[in-house]
What does this fold into?
Amino acid sequence: MGKERKGILGMLARGEIGVDEADKLLEATVANAAEPDKTPSRRKPRYLHIIIAKPEDTKDRVNLRIPIRLLAYGLKLTKLIPRAVREQINAALAQVGMDFTITQENIADFLEALSDISVQIDSGEKVQIYCR
It folds into this structure.
């Protein structure tokens, strides 16, 4: 990890800057970095991040960092649920428009879809979900 990136993350951890400001600074460091071959490195994400913040706050209200390995172990535990029950759960979710069938085979696609989600809630809170 570069010195600039560590410095920005340190300021964020100390509460000197907010999440949005840190995000902008990190994007600027990436944009300024010289890339010899314009292909982004595709390393596996290690954490699922969920951040909830109010726009006017400088500190996050919630900042979760969930290891991807924990999610993978959770998927393995779903094998303990009888197939018929799993199928009923998936069918019920599909009826309300939620196809949430995550398996070991499609977990990579699921994590890629989570690469950068940002949601604005009616209360003004901002929710960010991403994998890194």
